[in-house]
Task: inverse folding
């Protein structure tokens, strides 16, 4: 699989509204299939953008460690990881690697 494929895998999204210590409310989002991380923000769109940033970073971290990210379903053909990375400010992290197979990136399979 190519890096583009790993970045196009759809993960189940868990979202909940949680009370903050000061009595306010925030949205907590996570991809439980991918790892033990989450994003929180009062605005769900902001939380989702942060979660996507974390998802891309986690996939790259796993691949650099020689571990394959979970692939519970096939990659989405309509997702454009380059566009998403640019929107999230992560272009430098992935742009020149998208079309490479994991082995070509010097990462273990």
Result:
């Amino acid at each position: 699989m190519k890096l583009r494929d790993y970045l196009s895998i759809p993960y189940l999204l868990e979202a909940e509204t949680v009370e903050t210590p000061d009595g306010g409310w925030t949205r907590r989002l996570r991809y439980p299939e991918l790892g033990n991380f989450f994003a929180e923000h009062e605005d769900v769109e902001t939380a989702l953008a942060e979660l996507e940033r974390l998802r891309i970073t986690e996939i790259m971290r796993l691949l650099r460690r020689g571990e394959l990210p979970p692939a519970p379903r096939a990659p989405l053909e309509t997702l454009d990881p380059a566009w998403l990375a640019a929107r999230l400010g992560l272009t430098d992290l992935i742009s020149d690697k998208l079309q490479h197979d994991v082995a070509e990136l010097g990462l273990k399979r």
Summary: The CA atoms of residues 64 and 107 lie 6 Å apart.
